Amino acid sequence: MDLKALLAKSNFNPKISIFVSKYNRLDCIHAEYLWEFKNISIYEFDEGGHEIVRFLRDSGKLPAILLGTYVYSGKGESLAPPA
Do 46 and 76 contact (CB within 8 A), yes or no? Predict the structure, then answer.
């Protein structure tokens, strides 16, 4: 099933954050595919590659992300257009 099509048909619009490394082209392509949704924020980091979760964990960012308290520091740029 296509996530973009599913999101377009849904009335359920939770806030979604997607984290990618700018050095993983395929992950960036998949994230950019969802740009049009205002409830989705995409954040690009300079590190992590395809194992971005490992980078976020090892750098101490993952617990705050999971708790919803992480503040994006601006290292790298948000790929998503401003809401």
Answer: yes
Residue 78: CB partners within 8 Å, gap ≥ 6?
A: 41, 42, 43, 44, 72
Cα Rg of the chain, angstroms: 13
Q: Within its chain, how far is the Cα of 77 from the centroid?
A: 11
Tell me, what DSSP letter sits at residue 16?
A: E
Closest by CA position to 79, among listed 4, 16, 28 = 28
Token look-up 């099509």 returns 5
Task: Read off the pLDDT of residues 59-75 as tens digits, 9 standing for 90 and up.
Answer: 999 998 999 888 877 65
Q: Which residues pair with 21 in a beta bridge?
A: 45
| SS3 state of residue 11 | coil
